[in-house]
Specification:
By secondary structure, this protein is of the alpha/beta class. The chain has 15 helices and 20 strands.
Amino acid sequence: MSDPILKIGRVVEVSGSKVIGELEGTVEDLHRTYKSRRYTVGQVGSIVKIEAGDKLVFGVVTALRMTETLLDGDSDAHPESSSDAKWLEIELFGEAVRTGLGESEFSFQRGVVTYPLPGQGIFVASVLELARIYHRPDKPSIHVGSLSQAASLPVYLLTDDLLGKHFAVLGTTGSGKSCSVTVLLRSILDVAPKAHMILLDPHNEYRRAFPDNAEIIDPTSLNLPHWLLNFEESMALFIGKTEFVATSQTNILKDAILAARQDFGAQGISPDKITVDTPVPYKLSKLLAHVEANMPPQDSKKDPYLKIKNKIQTLQQDSRFSFLIRPDENVSDDLKDIVGQYLRIPVSDKPLSIIDLSGVPSDVVDVVVSMLCRMIFDFAVWSPRPVQVPIVLVCEEAHRYAPRRDDAAFLPTKQALSRIAKEGRKYGVGLGLISQRPSELAESILSQCNTLIALRMSNEQDQNFVQRALPDSVRSLVNVLPTLRAQEALVVGEGTVVPVRLRFNDLAEEHQPQSADVPFAASWAAADNGAEYVESVVRRWRLQERPPVVPQEAGKPDE
């Protein structure tokens, strides 16, 4: 039997997985003290238990109401209650059978078979009981934070279910999203030092968060040669977004790429086995030669050929594209080295690749992301089964690369991410989506994320979008999102044993991402910068050199 001091109410109605309970009149405070610990009472997102015979049924509080507002204003539904009675709405999520007399001596399982009866007591779940529910020592798990309901209780996420079945971290600017992602990834690396993870970083904010165990790849070290492009990506680069569907140019480019690949060849591959998408090197001079050789004599018909030729030559002359457009003398069959670098095979004490996209030209950043996503997936597809090298791709600002709107310019990237989301699980490719605007993210891709980590979110459109992605039983919990503190999140799905409201662990100052709010007042109150400051910025601007990283003040909330 539970201690009477933990009792806060009684069941008055049971409907499927939903329970309505009445708070006791003695509950006048938001907290109860039990064994020197403070427990929240009746707070949305808190966990309660109901004693149903020899079983304990656990549920999460989803709403608080007065009698007048209960059941759409039907104040006569429970006439035995006073008009100022307080009601709990509870969604049941699991049950337990006692195996002993101790608080934590029970076996817990998700799902409910035995439903409580009206009149049975509702109790605050104790720390020991919550610890028994949330921590599964029999499964690989990572410690990411503490329970909002009981700050002393650590919260663990299930590693395999979190990564293997995809996850999403969603939260508005200022919610602690970047810090939470850093905590999540560092927790994974702490227990898996031989992991293989890739983080797409569009703002260069995670470099300082992983000083020792990440390989930083920026435009100065980015190595994605043009011959790695598949045909759709080649069209986006060599034809351009505005003329993406130009049929005449498409056919010309297809024939030219195929001829160039077959001309270069590859050891052990017959030329007739090479297709336009085969990752075989080719020289741009051979591609251009094929285009020129097939130009018709009539000037009026040269336009499509000239457009392709001019576009390629323009790219060759632009130093910003040097990581992509290789001169002939640097074209070699180094696919093995490229794949090994990005996928961290071998790990070499750096299990995380951070791809800094902040310096990549905006008109090709989508092509770069598409190439990376496709390379990861193709490597997994052609790897031996069972999977020996699971890979996790974490995509920051995911709504930029997989937008909800239909846009030909994003099509290759969107298709690559969609394929990972839909098929990656069977090949050992996990996907993590990070976004501050979930309503702008492709719903078909987000729906494949079986774990949702939702931080503070005030935009109603974003809230509604997240609500649709949640299971029916906990959709009402979306109402708490605007009130969450920085680094506090609602976690729902396969990665957690039960829905949980948690606060992510704090980070050491040296591990915080470079995403703190700019201190306008303090900066403007400091000494004025001289002309040499502008001069140094302009120099780095012209040379495309990274500015120095200045340590940010500890304890500041991140993006």
